[in-house]
Amino acid sequence: MGEYTIAAIATAPGEAGIGIVRMSGEDSLEILDKIFKPTKKNSIKEYPSRRLTHGKIIDPKTEKVIDEVLVTYMKGPYTYTAEDVVEINCHGGIVSVKNILEIVLRQGALMAEKGEFTKRAFLNGRIDLSQAEAVMDVISAKTDKSFDVALGQLEGSLSTEVRKIRNDILEMMAHITVNIDFPDEDIEEITYKELEDFTNRILKQISSLLETAHTGKILKEGLNTVIIGKPNVGKSSLMNALLKESRAIVTDIPGTTRDIIEELISIKGIPLKIIDTAGIRDTEDIVEKIGVEKSKEFFNKADLIIFILNAAEGITKEDQEIIEKLHDKQTIILMNKTDLSMSITKAEVQALIPNKTILPISVVEGKGLDQLENTIVDMVYGGKVKQSEASFVTNVRHKRALENAKASIEDGLAAIQTGLALDFIEVDVKNCWEALGEITGESIGEDMLDAIFANFCLGK
Ligand SMILES: Nc1nc2c(ncn2[C@@H]2O[C@H](COP(=O)(O)OP(=O)(O)OP(=O)(O)O)[C@@H](O)[C@H]2O)c(=O)[nH]1
Ligand SMILES: [Mg+2]
Asked: Any idea what DSSP says for residue 24?
């Protein structure tokens, strides 16, 4: 597919044991041959494909040794890109990889664009589009669970489900087409009732995939969790407890935290972007005032609010002001400092703030933290999707395609129920089929492809 040979540094920049320069395309071996001198033989061409070979990279112009390396030539099509691929393992750090890449480019390879290796794997038919997109998710995964989901998608879990639905649609389209094209022939006529059943089945499959999108997005991008409350209730203490390190300063002076503190943690595999904020109160202190403003800003952007009360103190006017803003927010209310004598009960808090989860905890004694973690996990999985389920829709593009597919099939269903002519129904069903094809890349434009791969990192 690739008319020219591409090259890039495949490893991350910085000091490391090894660095890898990679090439893909039909001139890969020729280029390597010009710059590589094996230790034992004269040319890389004397070695079989896929053999790790020791030697030196030598600049053909100056005959200067650039680095001592191990190289592999992998003949296509059973390679990452399905083309001939060369990998040069040199010393890590920025100098060697950069010099080797330069020499490779001087021999006629072109600098790869972002994601071009993976794009070639897709264009050469080795993987489909959703698998290609999963490559980036695998690389950028922040927790084990996000990684598992991405790997499942890379192995084709989502593609398999989408193909299954598309096959069902194809079968339905075949029935419709035959009835449109040969209305008078002696073929078995499909009834509107049968069409309706068919359509409902397809709709159900699409809907259940879509239902995984909420959890999928969180697994991929993380849950924005903001800890909020008036000063001194234990927000920073909770942040530290969840992080299991003392990240934020804790003192008994109200107004200790002035700035936003943001960290990434994993709660049973769910990536949580956890944000500690300045305690919200009216204050004349300029620095604290800015902190309070920022707290309010982060409050608005949060996926999940953890609102902390001081159980020993009860609910004050400052708490009341926060409570008023909570109603349409996903919230967990923590009654902290239950190790002290409590001046309010859970039932009383529940009466004041209905329809929210309330947990009594004591951060200093480590009580209730397990329950907090379990509550967060349940919220993310919505009690609907099982944790073991392999295919989650994690990609916004896939979600949109599924939504379009769903809208089309719903139109189709409405057309069937009102008894419209088969031609009308056919259009909707076909739209649904095409929308799903965008996920796997079977029906997708070139612009779209470019946009997708532009999000990749270099060398992948
Ligand atoms: N008794 C008791 N004290 C606690 C508990 N959790 C936190 N504290 C204490 O409460 C005080 C304030 O804790 P912080 O974590 O700094 O409170 P904060 O909400 O971050 O306060 P600001 O940053 O000022 O808004 C500290 O002295 C903590 O040790 C608890 O569960 N029980
Ligand atoms: Mg604090």
From this structure: E
Q: Which atom of ligand 1 is nearest to the CA of 240?
A: 15
Rounded Cα distance, 143 and 156, in Å:
20
- Please report the sign of the dihedral spanned by the C-alpha atoms of residue 152, residue 153, residue 156, residue 162: positive
Neighbours of 58 (CB within 10 A): 17
Which CATH topology does 6-112 take?
A: Gyrase A; domain 2 (3.30.1360)
Q: Which two tokens stand for residue 155?
A: 């192995």
CA of 219 to the centre of ligand 2 (A): 27
Which listed ligand is nearest to 250 at the C-alpha? 1
Rg (CA), the chain: 29
Write the residue with the smallest CA distance to atom 23 of ligand 1. 257
Class of domain 134-212+393-453: mainly alpha
The CA 262 to ligand 1 mean position distance, Å, reads 18
Token pair for residue 88? 């040069």
Q: Is 213 helix (H, G, I), strand (E, B) or coil?
A: helix
User: Which are the contacts of 317, defined by CB distance < 8 A and separation ≥ 6?
Assistant: none
Q: In this predicted model, what pLDDT tens digit does every residue of 47-95 receive, in sequence order?
A: 999 999 999 999 999 999 999 999 999 999 999 999 999 999 999 999 9
